[in-house]
C-alpha cells in the first residue's frame, strides 16, 4: 500500500501565490493502483500547464509537501470563452513505478512523468 497520499499542485481561488496539494491517490491505496481526477485550468486561453506531483496530505500548502517531480502539458488549443478541463491520472504499478499523466480533454494532447516511488528523487520524463 502507499505510505503517503499523492496528488498534484493546484491553485486556490485563482491566487497563484497560494498553491495546495490536491490528493489523487490516498494513503493506504493498494499497489497497483490507478486513479484519475478532473481539474480546471486557471485561465481561459491557457495553452500549457505545469503539473507538479506532490506527496502530502490533501489541502496542505505546496511548501509542506514533498515534490516528487514536475512535467508540462503543452500545445493545448487556446479557448477564450472557458478554461480547459484536464484529467490527471496517477498510477502505481506492481514495481512501484508512479506514472503521472495529464490529458487535455479538448485537444487530446497529453504529457507523462514516470517516478520510481521507492526512490522519489528519481523523477524522469518519459
Please characterize this protein's 3D structure:
There is one protein chain. By secondary structure, this protein is an all-beta fold. The protein is built from no helices and nine strands. The chain has strands spanning 6-12, 15-25, 33-40, 49-55, 66-73, 85-92, 97-104, 110-116, 124-125. The strands form two sheets. A five-stranded antiparallel sheet has the order 3-6-7-8-9, with no helix packed on it. It is globular, with a radius of gyration of 14 Å. The mean pLDDT is 88.
Question: How would you summarize the topology of this molecule?
Answer:
Elements: E1 6-12, E2 15-25, E3 33-40, E4 49-55, E5 66-73, E6 85-92, E7 97-104, E8 110-116, E9 124-125
Write down the Rg.
14 Å
Query: Overall 3D geometry?
Result: globular
Distance between the termini: 24 Å
How much of the polypeptide forms β-strand, as a percent range? over 45%
Please tally the helical runs, counting DSSP H or I stretches of 4 or more residues.
0
Helix-strand makeup class = mainly beta
Largest sheet: 5 strands, antiparallel
Q: How helix-rich are the residues, as a percent range?
A: under 10%
What is the arithmetic mean of pLDDT?
88
Major sheet: arrangement of strands? 3-6-7-8-9
Number of strands: 9
Q: Spans of 5+ residues with little confidence (pLDDT < 50)? A: none
State the order of secondary-structure elements, H for helix, E for strand.
EEEEEEEEE
Amino acid at each position: 500500500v502507499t505510505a503517503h497520499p499523492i496528488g498534484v499542485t493546484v491553485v486556490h481561488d485563482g491566487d497563484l501565490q497560494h498553491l495546495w496539494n490536491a490528493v489523487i491517490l490516498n494513503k493506504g491505496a493498494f499497489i497497483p493502483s490507478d486513479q484519475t481526477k478532473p481539474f480546471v485550468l486557471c485561465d481561459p486561453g491557457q495553452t500549457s500547464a505545469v503539473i507538479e506531483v506532490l506527496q502530502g496530505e490533501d489541502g496542505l500548502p505546496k511548501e509542506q509537501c514533498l515534490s516528487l517531480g514536475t512535467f508540462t502539458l503543452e500545445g493545448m488549443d487556446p479557448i477564450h470563452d472557458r478554461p480547459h478541463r484536464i484529467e490527471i491520472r496517477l498510477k502505481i504499478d506492481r514495481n512501484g513505478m508512479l506514472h503521472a499523466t495529464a490529458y487535455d480533454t479538448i485537444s487530446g494532447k497529453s504529457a507523462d512523468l514516470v517516478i520510481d516511488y521507492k526512490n522519489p528523487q528519481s523523477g524522469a520524463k518519459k
